[in-house]
Write a sequence for this structure.
C-alpha cells in the first residue's frame, strides 16, 4: 500500500515493544520484529486513534527537516512491519491474543456465559419500546444488537472497532432483523451517527469493571450520540470486595512465605531473607482468579460496597471512597466483583452467584496483615479509580 | 524517594510493552505486569535520555499529551514500577524503587524447584575445580554463583540485569564465599569482564526452551567472555514433542467447537457460524500447561526428538527439523519438553517425570488435524526455531518408508 498524506493510519491492536537501549526499541508485530529509533514510541502514541498521516506527523514535534524525514521514514517502516495499519485494512485483522477483544476466544467465552447474555437480553426486552433507536457500543459478535432489534427497536447502530465487525455483519446478515441493524466500524468516541439514540446497550464491563474505559465511553456517548434522558443498559454498576481467605496452596510461588526461607536455608545452606525486600505491592492485585480458582477461596465476611455509578447521571470520572468495616473473622485477601442492574435482573460476578460459566475473572488482592484481625476488629478499605488507570485498593488496619 | 520537579529520571532498559487497545498499555518489567494508559508511551519516549521531570513535562505538553495531572500520575506510576529511575550517571545503577517491583514469584518458584537447583549444583560440583573462573549468566538470587564458589571456583562473575542483582548481592554477602563472587550488572551481551572464564553456568532455559535467547547469549559468551575449551553447564539440551490428547474441558472457550455453535443456536436463536472463518484451528493456538493442566492430558508413549543442541559447538541461531513417527493413535496436541544434561544426571520436564515442583510450564500446540491419524499412520512434526518467532510446531504429512527409518533413528 502506498502512503499519502491523507492516508488514515492507526496502530495495530497487538504490538510488542521491547525497549532495548537508550536509542532503540524493538517492535514485534505478528511475529516479525524490527529495531526502531526511539521516536517510534511517539509515533505509536499519536496513531493510537485513527489519524491521517499529515495530521499525525503534525502532532509530533520535529526540530528541523532532518527530524521530519526521520519521522516519515519511521512511519513508513512501521506501516511495512504492520504496526501501523490503514484504518480500513485494520478492521479486517483479527487479534491473536486471547485476552484482547479482537480475538475470537473471548467472544466464545462470553457467548458461553449464558447468564451474562440472557440478563442483557431480558434487560433489552424490558427496556425497548417500539420506535426506539438503539446504540450498541462494542457489539462484538452482534448478539446484543440482534436481541435489541428482536425486542422491537426501529433501528440499531452496532459499533465495533475490532476485526470482529466482519463476524458481526455476517451473523446479522443471517437473521430476520438484518435490515434494522447498521454496523458502524470504529471506536464510539470517534464515530458520528446519522441520528441520536434513545437506548444505549453496551457490555464493556471489564474484570476491573472500569478497565475498558466504560466511564469515558458512556460520558462521550451521552454527550454526542444519545438523546437527553436516554435509557442505558446496564443501568448501573456497583463494585464490591469480598474478604477471603486465600489458602497457602494458592499463595505458594506467588508470594514469599516464611516456610520458603526455612526450606531454602535447609536445602541450599543459603540465607535468602534479602528476598523479603521484594514483598508484594499491596495496592495492586496479586492474581486473577478464574471460576475454578475463585471456588478455592474461602469467603470470610460480608461484601463491602466500594463504588456505585449510575450510568444515566454520573459526571465524575474518578472515584475515591473509604469504607469502615468490622471484621467477621481473620482473612488475607480481598476479591473484587461487581453487580449491574439490567431491567429487573441483576448481573453479578460474585463467585458464588456467577459460578463456572462466569466469563469474567476475579481480581484478588493479598493483604497478609489482615490475618491478625479477629471478629469485631475494625478495618478500612480504601478505593481509588482514576481515569485511564485501574482500580486500586488498600487496606488500613488501625 | 519523593519525586521533585528537578528530579532527573531516566528510562530503564529492558522494558516490555504491549499495546492492548487504544486506551491501554501493558508494561512488563522484571516479570511484573501493570496496565497503564496510552500516554505512558510518550512519557517513556521523553525519558529515553536523562531529563528532569519539569523539563519532561514541558516537552510532553507541547505534544498535546493529556493534562498535567494525568502526566504527573503516569510519571509517578512508572517510577514506582521501576520503569523510570533516579538517574545519577550510572547506566546499571540499581533501581531505588526496587521494593515496589513486588515479589518476584518466578525466583520463588525456581528456588522451590529443588530438583532443578540441586541438579545444577550437582553439575557444578562435578565440573568446577580449583582455579576455575566461572561465569554465571542470569544469576537471579545468586544461588548458582554461590554453589560455584563453594564447589571451589577461584572467582565467579555473576551477571544479572534485573533489580534482582541487589538481592543477589545481599544474599551473597551473607555467605562465606562472598569474596570470591563479583556481581556484574547488565546484560551479558553488553558487558565486558576483566578476564575470560573457563566454566559457564547459566539457567536461562525458558518455557519455550529457547525463549530466553539461550542460543544468542551462549554464542556471544563463547566469542567474548569464555576461554577456548570452556566447560558449559548444561552442556547439552534435547527438546522433544510428545503427542497429547487435550481434553474438551481445556479446549472449552479456547477453540470454537461444534457444540458451542449448537448451544448458541439453541440459546440465542442465532447462527454464529461466521465465527468459524476467523478461527484458524491450526498450530496458531497453544497454551502453557502447568502441572494441573498436564495432569488432565493424556500422552503417547514415544516422544519425538525435535532438536539436540550441543552448547559447546552449535553454530546457527536458527533450528529446523522434521521428526517422523508412526501414530500410536489419534491425538490433538503436542507438548514440548526438554532434557538438560547436568553432570551425570539429566533434568527432564517430561510430563510424566516432572512433578508439582517443576518451575517450568510446557508449551502445548493444538493440532486438530492429528485427530484423523490412526494407529500406525505416519506423520511428521516440523519444528522451527527462529529468534523472531520463537519455537514453532507444525503437523506435516509423511510417507510410510520415512516413518520406518525414523523409528530406527530414535531407537539408536
Amino acid at each position: 500500500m502506498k502512503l499519502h498524506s491523507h492516508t488514515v493510519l492507526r496502530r495495530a491492536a497487538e504490538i510488542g515493544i521491547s525497549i532495548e537501549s537508550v536509542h532503540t526499541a524493538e517492535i514485534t508485530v505478528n511475529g516479525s520484529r524490527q529495531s526502531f529509533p526511539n521516536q517510534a514510541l511517539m509515533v505509536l502514541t499519536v496513531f493510537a486513534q485513527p489519524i491521517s498521516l499529515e495530521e499525525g506527523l503534525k502532532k509530533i514535534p520535529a526540530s528541523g527537516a532532518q527530524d521530519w524525514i526521520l519521522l516519515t521514514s519511521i512511519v513508513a517502516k512501521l506501516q511495512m512491519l504492520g504496526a501501523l495499519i490503514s484504518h480500513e485494512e485494520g478492521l479486517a485483522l483479527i487479534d491473536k491474543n486471547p485476552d484482547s477483544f479482537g480475538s475470537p476466544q473471548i467472544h466464545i467465552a462470553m457467548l458461553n456465559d449464558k447468564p451474562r447474555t440472557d440478563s442483557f437480553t431480558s434487560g433489552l426486552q424490558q427496556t425497548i419500546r417500539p420506535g426506539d433507536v438503539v446504540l450498541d457500543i462494542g457489539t462484538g459478535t452482534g448478539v446484543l444488537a440482534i436481541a435489541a432489534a428482536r425486542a422491537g427497536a426501529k433501528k440499531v447502530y452496532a459499533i465495533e472497532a475490532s476485526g470482529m465487525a466482519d463476524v458481526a455483519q455476517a451473523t446479522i446478515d443471517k437473521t430476520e432483523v438484518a435490515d434494522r441493524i447498521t454496523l458502524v466500524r470504529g471506536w464510539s468516541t470517534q464515530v458520528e451517527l446519522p441520528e441520536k439514540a434513545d437506548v444505549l446497550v453496551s457490555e464493556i464491563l471489564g474484570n476491573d469493571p472500569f478497565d475498558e474505559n466504560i466511564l469515558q465511553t458512556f460520558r462521550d456517548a451521552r454527550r454526542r450520540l444519545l438523546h437527553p434522558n436516554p435509557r442505558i443498559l446496564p443501568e448501573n454498576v456497583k463494585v464490591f470486595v469480598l474478604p477471603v481467605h486465600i489458602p497457602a496452596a494458592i499463595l505458594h510461588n506467588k508470594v514469599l512465605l516464611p516456610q520458603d526461607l526455612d526450606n531454602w536455608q535447609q536445602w541450599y545452606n543459603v540465607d535468602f531473607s534479602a528476598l523479603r525486600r521484594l514483598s508484594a505491592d499491596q495496592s495492586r492485585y496479586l492474581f486473577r482468579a478464574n471460576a475454578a480458582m475463585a471456588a478455592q477461596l474461602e469467603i470470610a465476611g460480608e461484601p463491602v460496597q466500594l463504588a456505585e455509578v449510575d450510568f444515566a447521571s454520573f459526571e465524575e470520572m474518578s472515584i475515591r471512597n473509604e469504607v469502615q468495616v468490622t471484621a467477621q473473622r481473620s482473612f488475607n485477601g480481598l476479591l473484587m466483583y461487581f453487580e449491574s442492574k439490567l431491567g429487573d435482573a441483576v448481573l453479578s460476578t460474585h463467585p458464588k452467584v456467577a459460578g463456572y460459566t462466569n466469563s469474567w475473572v476475579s481480581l484478588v488482592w493479598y493483604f497478609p496483615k489482615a490475618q491478625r484481625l479477629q471478629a469485631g476488629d475494625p478495618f478500612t478499605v480504601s478505593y481509588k479509580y482514576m481515569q485511564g488507570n485501574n482500580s486500586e485498593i488498600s487496606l488500613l488496619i488501625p | 524517594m519523593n519525586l521533585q520537579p528537578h528530579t532527573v529520571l531516566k528510562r530503564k532498559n529492558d522494558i516490555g510493552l504491549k499495546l492492548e487497545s487504544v486506551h491501554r498499555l501493558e508494561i512488563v518489567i522484571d516479570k511484573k505486569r501493570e496496565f497503564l494508559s496510552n500516554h505512558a508511551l510518550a512519557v517513556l519516549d521523553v525519558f529515553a535520555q536523562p531529563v528532569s521531570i519539569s523539563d519532561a513535562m514541558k516537552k510532553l505538553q507541547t505534544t498535546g499529551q493529556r493534562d498535567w495531572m494525568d502526566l504527573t500520575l503516569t510519571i509517578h506510576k512508572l517510577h514506582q514500577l521501576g520503569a523510570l529511575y533516579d538517574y545519577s550517571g550510572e547506566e546499571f545503577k540499581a533501581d531505588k524503587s526496587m521494593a515496589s517491583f513486588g515479589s518476584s514469584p518466578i525466583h520463588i518458584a525456581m528456588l522451590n524447584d529443588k530438583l532443578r537447583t540441586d541438579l545444577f549444583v550437582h553439575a557444578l560440583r562435578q565440573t568446577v575445580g580449583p582455579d576455575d573462573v566461572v561465569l554465571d549468566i542470569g544469576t537471579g538470587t545468586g544461588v548458582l554463583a554461590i554453589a560455584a564458589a563453594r564447589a571451589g571456583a577461584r572467582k565467579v562473575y555473576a551477571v544479572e540485569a534485573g533489580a534482582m542483582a541487589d538481592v543477589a548481592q545481599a544474599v551473597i554477602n551473607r555467605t562465606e564465599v562472598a569474596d570470591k563472587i563479583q556481581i556484574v550488572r547488565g546484560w551479558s551481551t553488553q558487558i565486558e569482564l576483566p578476564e575470560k572464564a573457563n566454566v559457564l553456568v547459566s539457567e536461562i532455559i525458558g518455557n519455550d526452551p529457547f525463549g530466553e535467547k539461550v542460543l544468542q547469549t551462549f554464542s556471544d559468551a563463547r566469542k567474548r567472555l569464555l576461554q577456548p575449551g570452556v566447560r558449559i553447564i548444561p552442556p547439552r539440551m534435547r527438546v522433544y514433542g510428545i503427542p497429547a490428547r487435550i481434553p474438551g474441558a481445556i479446549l472449552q472457550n479456547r477453540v470454537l467447537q461444534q457444540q458451542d455453535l449448537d448451544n448458541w443456536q439453541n440459546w440465542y436463536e442465532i447462527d454464529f457460524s461466521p465465527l468459524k472463518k476467523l478461527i484458524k484451528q491450526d498450530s496458531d493456538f497453544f497454551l502453557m500447561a502447568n502441572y494441573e493442566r498436564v495432569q488432565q492430558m493424556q500422552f503417547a508413549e514415544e516422544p519425538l526428538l525435535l532438536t539436540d543442541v550441543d552448547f559447546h559447538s552449535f553454530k546457527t541461531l536458527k533450528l529446523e527439523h522434521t521428526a517422523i513417527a508412526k501414530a500410536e493413535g489419534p491425538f490433538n496436541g503436542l507438548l514440548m519438553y526438554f532434557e538438560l544434561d547436568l553432570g551425570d544426571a539429566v533434568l527432564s520436564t517430561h510430563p510424566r517425570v516432572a512433578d508439582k515442583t517443576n518451575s517450568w510450564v510446557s508449551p502445548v500446540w493444538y493440532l486438530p488435524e492429528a485427530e484423523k491419524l490412526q494407529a500406525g499412520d505416519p506423520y511428521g512434526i516440523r519444528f522451527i526455531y527462529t529468534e523472531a518467532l520463537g519455537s514453532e510446531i507444525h503437523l506435516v504429512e509423511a510417507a510410510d518408508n520415512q516413518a520406518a527409518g525414523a523409528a530406527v533413528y530414535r531407537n539408536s
Remarks:
- Chain A has a mean pLDDT of 86.
- The longest helix of chain A spans residues 65-81.
